[in-house]
Amino acid sequence: MPELPEVETSVRGISPYLVGKTIKEIIIRRKQLRWLVSDELSEMQNALITVISRRAKYLIIHTTKGEIIIHLGMSGSLSILEKETKDVGKHDHIDLITQDGIVLRYNDPRRFGAWLWADNISQMPIFQKLGLEPLSAEFNGDYLYKKSRNRKVAVKKFIMDNTVVVGVGNIYACESLFLAKILPERLVCTLTEEQSHLLVTIIKQVLAKAIEQGGTTLKDFVQPDGKPGYFAQVLQVYGRKGEECHQCKNQIKTKIIGQRNTFYCDECQK
Ligand SMILES: [Zn+2]
Questions:
Q1: Which of 28, 30, 53, 99 could, after both became Cys, cross-link 93 (CB 3.0–4.6 A)?
Q2: Domain of 192: which CATH number?
Q3: For 115-133, what is each residue's pLDDT tens digit?
Q4: pLDDT of residue 222
């Protein structure tokens, strides 16, 4: 599933091809994604693309005719084709074509993604309850510490709560808690001030590293098969059930927390 770093990589990958360009048309081959694709998208002719940004896991194409909001869902991906083509795959549901012939193609086998239109994203319900961006200065140790007082919820569930901080997916939550030496099921209200600072610093490092690694795959955006490289990271605990902990040789354990499979080392994490 595309996580925040992949979405950020997508923003950086497609921006050089699209910003400053004028839309010729948006071809919608399939309207039934997670939500129905907005009708307004077929009326975007002559809109100028001014900037492309990200909020949580939404990619936002800002234009002179409103904003296009894209979510990659479970299996969505964006690719750039340097010229128009009649060669269309089964899961290539949407093409955004610029006047100079660049194609932004959306592929999504499981169709849990979204393409929506808005004239003002801040008014959209999906954006109103979102917590802080994890890489922003506002998300810091003081914020986590203060926000978690009296909260009797597992620390892992808390950092994956989108109303607290957005985009800390399951892999990144497991890895960050391991590196901060904090047990995922520990109640967040028991974290010390020092641990809150450490955990936030590590979350930022883990996400930044993933984005940096994604940067090395940017060339993949223009490969004919179009899949951006979702990058394999060196993982400490995630996906390693029963294997040896790299730190202490203890077996990595799993447990369901907040309906998500959670990987940890009960020797290293307290
Ligand atoms: Zn260990």
A1: 30
A2: 1.10.8.50
A3: 999 998 888 888 999 999 9
A4: 59
